[in-house]
Amino acid sequence: SWRACSSLRLGHSLFSNGLLRGLHTTQAAHKAQAGRYRVTRNRSKPLTYEMANQPCQIAHRKSWNSWNTTSLYEGLREPETVVDDIFIRKFMTGTWHNLFVSEVIIKRQHNMIRIAGIVQRKIAARKMYFLIGYCEELLSYWLKCPVKLELQTVPDKKDVVYKYI
Amino acid sequence: MRKVASVLMMAGNIQGAAGSIFGRCVVPRKLVRSTPACGFRISEKLSAIPLLRSSLLPQRTLSPKLFHTASLSYLSASDDLAVGEPDKLYSLVEVECRGHDTAVLRSYLTFVSSAASHLNVSLEEILWPKKHIHRWTLLKSVHIHKHHRVQYEVRTHFLIMKFARLTGSTTDTFLEYIQRNLPEGVAMKVTKHELHRLPEHVKPSSEVIV
Prior knowledge:
Distance between the termini of chain A: 35 Å
Radius of gyration of chain A: 23 Å
CATH architecture of the largest domain in chain B: 2-Layer Sandwich
CATH class of the largest domain in chain B: Alpha Beta
Number of domains of chain B: 2
Structural class of chain A: alpha/beta
Oligomer: heterodimer
Structural class of chain B: alpha+beta
Distance between the termini of chain B: 40 Å
Number of helices of chain B: 4
Largest sheet of chain A: 4 strands, mixed
């Protein structure tokens, strides 16, 4: 199938020797669409602050979700840490069913992993304590280092909505 | 650069007060881990004869038995100063911190400088070397579209703090305090410049007029 392409002819703005050359652009490939949400007609989609800021705003208005030293200059063990992070995020979102309202933040300090996030208060406090202990215990056995959970709770998920799109 | 696990001297009674998770010691107080995942790497470069002090630590220990036996072995293999042995003298202790975020490094600097001023450790020089940017270009699309690329970059910021005229025990204690409060995502490299006496057999020749 042909890809839809539009070709432009540009004049002297690009070349000094007077020759005309064409510039071919494809409609889909020149746009960036990572981490961006489509505007709805009636402004009904809620966005948290993190979702509202695009990936180009990282280190300006956003910060990272996992803090470690692996990608520093002369840092080590980067791929293993990435895989560990993926596992931790899947495990946390799966264990806390529909309860996480923010992203799972992973901080590595010395030999400890500290997991932070915002959780809704949909289940009883005793169940939350059990889940915290369960996650800490199992993750520490899997990842072979102390794991600490530092969760904050919020009564309703509307409390973390930054804007509607 | 050799990764040397430096065994720090701490008073034995502090070990009992260590915080514990699951009823076990998180980190034996005498140990400082030197793996990259933990956030700092310690290298000791001695200006004189280097002392080999490598006790390779198990990277992560889990069961209570391992923790206790490990800490016991470190007690025996520790290099506490013997009674009567003079303390080491460092003319310069250089601490280099690396991070992705300058704000984090700046706040860590205020913490370290206030700790140094309270403990009478002279912080002589603060340097901010030029940041290191690692850039690379990838194809934006999975298949074809060679003219559309994506560029990523990773920035590493540096902070160098130089402390002068410290003794060995002060250095160990101060560094341990600083490293315990090292923020996540910040790496540390410590360079110690030690002062040694000239060996006995090195003497000025008899022809030299003093």
